[in-house]
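This part of the workshop introduces the protein records we will be handling. Each record describes a single protein and holds just a pair of labelled lines. Instead of coordinates, the fold is spelled out as a row of discrete tokens. To make this concrete, we reproduce a full record directly below:
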Amino acid sequence: MGVTGLWQAVAPAAKKYSLRDLTVNHMFNPDGTKRSEHPFRIGVDARYVPRCSNCGQNPELRTLFYKLAHLYCTPANILFVFDGPQKPAIKRGKKVVTIPPWLTTYFKDFASAFGFRTHEAAGEAEAELAALNQLGVIDAVWTEDSDALVFGALTVFRRQVTRSDNDDDKSVLMYSANGLAQESAVALTKGGLLLMALFCGGDYNNGLLRCGWKTTRVLAQHGVGDELLRAATTTANEDDLTTFLGPWVKHVRDLLTEMGCKKLSATFPSDFPSPAVVLAYVKPSITFTCADPGPPQALSMLLRTLQGINLERLAFLCEFRFGWSRGGPPVPVHTIESSGTLGKLKNLVYEGVCIRNLCGVSRLYHVIV
């Protein structure tokens, strides 16, 4: 999901990092002295966490647990953001697939047991995350949806895709707004990213026929995306934006002709781009804005506080959702055999418990022995 070809277009600006090294270096200097008073804060698009794997009881939930356990081994405060009621029902002409309600409930239960925070967006999670990043509530957005860049996220993490079985699954690709603008092979500002979304196509429109990301990127480097962004930011409604678009489209056609794209210039639709689509990217539905700092400040304080794991609660959830015991009737969590649920937690979670406590990121509730 996201803008067609955008990840490919911004690839030269991507930086590969070990997530653990990045978060530890955020908190400590090389000599071991403290650098930051709060852990690195990552906002995660919840839609991209639960991916079904065909194994065992409750496969979707089981996959979710393994991913949460993996995140817990990173000394960072995690905020999962879920899509809200104002999210678009249709994208790319198809009904949007959302996290099933039953999985959302269990997702939040497990996230809470790990000590992670959850938040429901007004509309799309990636738009909410971008706003939280701009406001300084979170330090980075983790998503596979390139729309987060278009919505204005300052720092975006994306999973490192690899065919090998080494530690690359613990690495991320990081994209920064400054890096996208300054890398000569990319040179895309926020306005340029908006132009990419409109011309290449994405969740809200099909784009411009026969206009790929390379042509669009050259157009963006002429500043027409920045002009459109300024107009869309300051206009009050679609009618005002329509008035601006008339001369703007003529300017774009002239640029295309100068670039040697005469056929594309001649066939450029007079009603493109749609003002509604432009405003969907520039003014998405979000819970709060810079003009209303109260709610994000409250959320920011939560993310600055210690997040404690509740091992007893986590063991209880694993035992009765995954069937990791050796069978028989349910028993009190303290008497579950270590070769079952507690053995799994020891292998998957205890490393994170040690790392987080050594870094001072987390408190530990209900130690199980």
Observations:
- Confidence is low (pLDDT under 50) at residues 53-57.
- Residues 190-282 form one domain.
- The chain is about 45% helix and 10% strand.
